[in-house]
Amino acid sequence: MYSRRDFTKFSLAIAGGLTAARLATPSAEAETAQARFEIMKSDAEWKSTLSPEQYNVLRKHGTERAGTSPLDKKYDPGMYNCAGCDLPLFASDAKFDSGTGWPSFFKPLDKAIGTSIDKSFFSTRTEVHCSRCGGHLGHVFEDGPQPTGLRYCMNGVALKFVPKAST
Hints:
Strand order of the largest sheet: 3-4-8-7-6-5
CATH topology: Metal Binding Protein, Guanine Nucleotide Exchange Factor, Chain A
Number of helices: 4
CATH class: Mainly Beta
CATH architecture: Beta Complex
Largest sheet: 6 strands, antiparallel
Number of domains: 1
């Protein structure tokens, strides 16, 4: 028979082990911060060029509230660029309505994004970041439409829509 004290010791040992494993595994934010990108700025420089919301998402790996981005329901022809460095990331013809409340795409432009493993919030996801400045954009999931079967679920605040020029 186990006593309450044994249960407490066992629970603390499990919690300590999980905490140690979590601390030993680099987060997506730490992995991205260690990488070298074409555009590297100090924290102060990013804060001076981005809005507080953009800074929180792009540089601190935050997430905007679902359904708050006007880009979620935007389907005009054009490009979706990184709000941090203006690199084109997604074409409008790869956008679809995922019903999640965030702008979603089934395919990025070639060499526009990078990915890393994100083990935050007690789950493992694939984080998506800008290949030029390292800004956090969102995550990619394997529940999207064909032809890729992928859903790039992006924070609208991390994107800048550039309409296609009229000819």
